[in-house]
From TrEMBL, chain A:
Protein name as annotated: Transport permease protein
Chain segments annotated as transmembrane: 21-40, 171-196, 217-240, 252-273, 285-305, 340-360
Gene: ybhS_2
Keyword DNA repair set for record: no
Membrane topology: Multi-pass membrane protein
TrEMBL record, chain B:
PANTHER family according to UniProt: MEMBRANE COMPONENT OF ABC TRANSPORTER YHHJ-RELATED, MULTIDRUG ABC TRANSPORTER PERMEASE YBHS-RELATED
Organism expressing this protein natively: Salinivirga cyanobacteriivorans
MF term (GO), any: ABC-type transporter activity
Keyword field contains Signal: no
Membrane disposition: Multi-pass membrane protein
UniProt domain ABC transmembrane type-2: residue ranges: 128-370
GO cellular component, as recorded: plasma membrane
Swiss-Prot/TrEMBL keywords: Cell membrane, Membrane, Transmembrane, Transmembrane helix, Transport
Protein's name according to its UniProt entry: Inner membrane transport permease YbhR
Primary residence: membrane
Intracellular or extracellular location(s): Cell membrane
Domain of life per record: Bacteria
Protein family membership: Belongs to the ABC-2 integral membrane protein family.
Amino acid sequence: MKRFLAFVKKEFFHIFRDSRTLLILFGMPIAQILLFGYVITTDLKDVQIAIYDPTPSEVTQGLVHKLESSGYFIVDQYLSSPDEAESAFKTGDIREVIIFEAGLAEKLKRDGKGDIQLLIDASDPNMGNLINQYTRGTILKYQQQINEGPAVSGGIEVESRMMFNAGLDSVYMFVPGTMALILMLISAMMTSISIAREKEMGTMEVLLVSPLRPLQIILGKVTPYVALSFINAVTIIVLGNTVFGVPVKGSLLLLMAESLLFILLALSLGILISTVSKTQQVAMFISLFALMLPTILLSGFIFPIESMPDILQGLSLLMPPRWFITIIKNIMLKGAGMPFVWKETLILLAMILFFIIMSVKKFKIRLE
Amino acid sequence: MRTILYILRKEFTQIFRNKTMLPIIFVVPVVQLVVLVFAANMELKNIDMTVLDRDKSSTSQRLIAKFSGSPYYNVTFSEASIDKSADDLYADKSDMVLHIPQHFERDLHNYKQADLQVLINAINNTSASLMNGYTQSIVMDYNKDIMLEISQKQPQTTDQLEVESSFWFNPELNYKIYMLPGILVVLVTVIGMFLTAMNLVREKEIGTIEQINVTPIRKHHLLIGKLVPFWVIAMFELAFGLSIGYFFFDLPIEGSLVSLFGFGSIYLLVALGIGLFLSTITDNQQQVMFLAYFFMLTFILMSGIFTPADSMPEWAQTINYINPFYYFIRAIRMILLKGSAFIHVLPEALSLLTYALIIFTLALWRYRKTV
């Protein structure tokens, strides 16, 4: 035990002596959570549009004004012919062209009917969909306004309540996701590379002939990183709460315990990676390359898992961050307690167990 | 020139001799490209909806039929209270709850306002607004029909604006052809940038850089030798990924391939140049890896690949001026999907070219200092 403690102390010193790495390790999550919290949003804002209006009138101008004051759209240019739409799209920034038919205002007056055509850049289908919905919504509202009140009394009124995120804020989605992403990658990279480094530099042999047992060596290597990652987790939660107003409705203690669990999982995955790779380069590529995109794409971080094809939904079951994201969203946003997250917790535990057993097995083989 | 060729030969041999790295370089990206392209989809399907029908009238049942008839909704019924049903939202068993109160039909027939309550799980704000949008439009539609029937007469003549939408460049709203180029750019860059960054640092860490430094090789020879092999590999992967997209995912190639590869080759100079620069300011692989990871992840998430760059705050769009991803993701999508010509992406290309010059100067300068 005394030997082990000495080893842990040595490892701590080793990390804390390298102030540059330390700065990266602590500074990175802070910078990232701040950046992503502000930047990653799926809201529509300031979409640049172009207008073709051959016969400007009060009606068309009123609608354009309505679109602009919604905050979703900015009129970037007026076209002098519908044929210019194509080049407006191709130069990049225009995402929608609104074409009013000639004499729209008069036709409305005369026949009670007028045509508006929307050309939408749907190369990004999500955006295309949203732009279409928002424009149509605005036109509908405008129409009711020029028709002076509802024509028929009564009718169905839908009262929607947005649960757990009344303001429809993007950060509610992204703070838990970013937390999972950062903890997963940093923790796994740290351990995987630190053991692979000993191997590459040849110092692993020295450690192996020391009286420390393999398990002790691994635990000794991991302990300082548990502390480091835990500080990172706390920082992220504090920033999410104070800067972005993401609530912690459930028990803080439970949240911390689950974060610790997830950190242990990521670290043990890192160890497994390091036991199978001979060089730092390989360890890094596996931990970074194999984890980054799948974590972003398959964990429900940005894209809803339910929309994925069945095979990918199955694959996402194997992604540790998926379970962690569910857990922290449930605790932070819904205020759920253990009864709602025990299943996910058990899955994380089982994964840790699996990674540890696998690494111990692999590690022993190397000893022979 | 001959020195460079020798260095190149040495670097290439070293890459191809490394049997563990080869599959990582060539197989992993392809697998990720093919698999992950299916994941990036914001479209909503299978909305699990719990219906509490307190009215049990023909009017309410017809409304429910509208929902169960739509491909978007999986309708289940509940007799529980609205609070009890909200528990389903907590437990993720349901995405939304529709409550049809008693006297729904009676109110409608008496020309009173009939209220429907909808509870939506809004943790994912995009899904929530889409769900709300679909629900509202189904109800509005139904509302129109039902009011017509009740009043038994033609609607009063009011001003009607007919809106017709056409979706350009991707009329089938196929998410894969939008995401594939983006994911490909990420993969190509990760490979290129990390290989470059690790390579030089590794020589430093294991001491072989000293040996190179005492040879008559000039600095820029060495840097070119360290850059070109990975540039070639990355270009190859770009071409390979595009072919996969073209043959298996119906990726359109509207614009010219020459402009695409022209742009790509400049872009890779920047991406690899950043890797090179990072390797000159760090002492070991661990540092360079964390630094590179930091820049990569930040650049990726800010580039507009997954979330629209136009919606970001002003200052973030300013930061994007130093984000190489931002330029290339934009350009590759414009050229492939919209058929934009090189002239349309010329400003981006010039920015990247300037960027490349700056980053190489920095790398050359830093390298001299550290030795």
